[in-house]
Amino acid sequence: MISRRRVLVGAAALAATAALGSPPNSKPRRIALNNLHTGERLEIEYFRDDAYVADALAAIEVLLRAFRNGERHAIDPKLMDYLVDVAAQVAAPPAFSVISGYRSPETNDRLHERSNGVSQKSLHMQGRAIDVRMTGIESTVLAAGAEELQRGGVGFYRASNFVHLDTGAFRTWRG
């Protein structure tokens, strides 16, 4: 028989897990990333035993560093969750080619001066945005899958063939 106390303790544990920001599904999570500018590749389990793996997040930070100057910044682990969930939404393994991860403020300023498609307050500068494509998945399909999740930013850039994803508020745009 389940007691009221046991139900309350279970609910409290569930609430605590949610408050810590763990993915809704606490199974191990893996991701594969290929940095198109540096040629570096990484396939790694970044979440296991109900926690993000610090060494894996550090390796992701290195791979997603600003490729122009080597500057590193912590990457929001929820961005990796978002990528994995988008891959699942389009029925593909979570393997991404990365066009841009972290972007230094100096680089962002230069890009913003050249293009109105680059936000002056880009979430790339906070480690909360990534520009990607997937082998074998059209970028239109990838963007549509992300939009269906209705979480974070989704920008589709047809001419450059990539999708921008971020952990900000849900919004969409075409570049």
Q: Topology, pairings included?
A:
Blueprint: H1 4-19, E1 29-35, E2 41-48, E3 51-52, H2 54-63, H3 77-89, E4 95-100, H4 105-114, E5 129-133, H5 139-149, E6 153-157, E7 162-166, E8 171-174
Parallel strand pairs: 1-4, 6-8
Antiparallel strand pairs: 1-2, 2-3, 4-5, 5-7, 6-7
Helix pairs in contact: 3-5
Give me some keywords for this one.
single chain, alpha+beta, 8-stranded mixed sheet, 5 helices
Summarize this entry quickly.
This protein is of the alpha+beta class. The protein is built from five helices and eight strands. Mean pLDDT is 86; it is low at 1-22.
Task: Describe the fold and architecture.
The chain has 175 residues and is of the alpha+beta class. It is 34% helix and 24% strand. The protein is built from 5 helices and 8 strands, in the order αβββααβαβαβββ. β1 and β2 form a beta hairpin. The longest helix is centred in the N-terminal third of the chain and has 16 residues.
